[in-house]
Design brief:
By secondary structure, the protein is α+β, with helices and mostly antiparallel strands. The protein is 26% helix and 31% strand. It contains two helices and four strands; from the N terminus they run E-H-E-H-E-E. The chain has a four-stranded mixed β-sheet, with helices on one face. Helix 1 links the parallel strand 1 and strand 2. The N and C termini lie close together (9 Å).
Length: 90
């Protein structure tokens, strides 16, 4: 059946692909949690290494994606909670 909760923690450069792979598997109202999205504060501002740039792009994409409602938490190195909008989930 559809997934209620997914936790993504791995290669930051693959987070966006993880999101696209998981999204069709999620139930309506399910949540995908991404770890380390604040990356020691390095995602604020310009520049940074490849991981920092990918996390910045992920954060922007999640914040502007109409398929999910995203909440960012400043716990530890940051968490993003992307909840699937009811009209799109299974």
């Amino acid at each position: 059946g559809p997934i209620d909760l997914a936790f993504v923690d791995g290669l930051n450069t693959q987070y966006q692909q993880n999101f696209e792979d998981l999204l069709p598997l999620m139930r309506s109202g399910g949540t995908i949690v991404f770890d380390n999205v604040l990356w020691r504060g390095q995602v604020v501002g310009a520049g940074g290494d490849a991981q920092t740039r990918h996390l910045r792009e992920l954060n922007d994409a999640l914040a502007n994606d109409p398929r999910v409602t995203t909440t960012f938490l400043s716990l530890g190195d940051g968490l993003a909670l992307a909840t699937v909008n009811r009209t799109l989930g299974k």
